[in-house]
Amino acid sequence: MSPRRNRPKGAGESAPGPGVEPSGRYGGFERTEDWQGEDWQVRRVAGASAAGKTYRCPGCDQEIPSGLAHVVAWPAYSGVDERRHWHTGCWGAKDRRGVKERRSRNAPRY
Fold first, then answer.
1. With 69 labelled, which of 2, 35, 44, 48 sits at a CA distance of 20 to 30 A?
2. Number of domains in the chain
3. Within a domain: residue 55?
4. Contact 71/40 with Cβ under 8 angstroms?
């Protein structure tokens, strides 16, 4: 026998306002972080929410495969059109990385 619930499911939860997406839809809560002097909206995406889609991470320029949990970030002042999908590790290491230079395979490294 399972213990009795003290209150019904959903009691005390307020409904989200108009235009606000529920946080559970994409698997994580949205938060604001400061990066390079700007506020960024950051949301974790569960792997199940990303099934059937691939993205390119701006941190490492590698593909984020379908079904892999990752982070979505965009500047707070802009809309969702500026969203970028990052590997979780790349988003965490963004301050420790330099600017990624794009070279051809035959180009010298100096």
1. 35
2. 1
3. yes
4. no
The predicted model gives 5-32 an average pLDDT of 57
Residue 56 lies in a domain: yes
Structural domain boundaries, residue 59 = 30-92
Residue 105: CB atoms within 10 A of its CB come to: 4
Which residue type occupies 42?
V
Helix/strand/coil percentages in the chain, nearest 5: 15, 25, 60
In a domain, 87, yes or no: yes
Q: What is the pLDDT of residues 62-103, one digit of tens each?
A: 899 988 999 999 998 887 788 899 999 999 888 887 555 566
Residue 14 included in any domain = no
Considering only CA atoms, which of 21, 87, 97, 100 is closest in space to residue 55? Answer: 87
DSSP codes of every residue in 52-80 = T--EE-TTT--EE-TT--EEEEEETTS-G
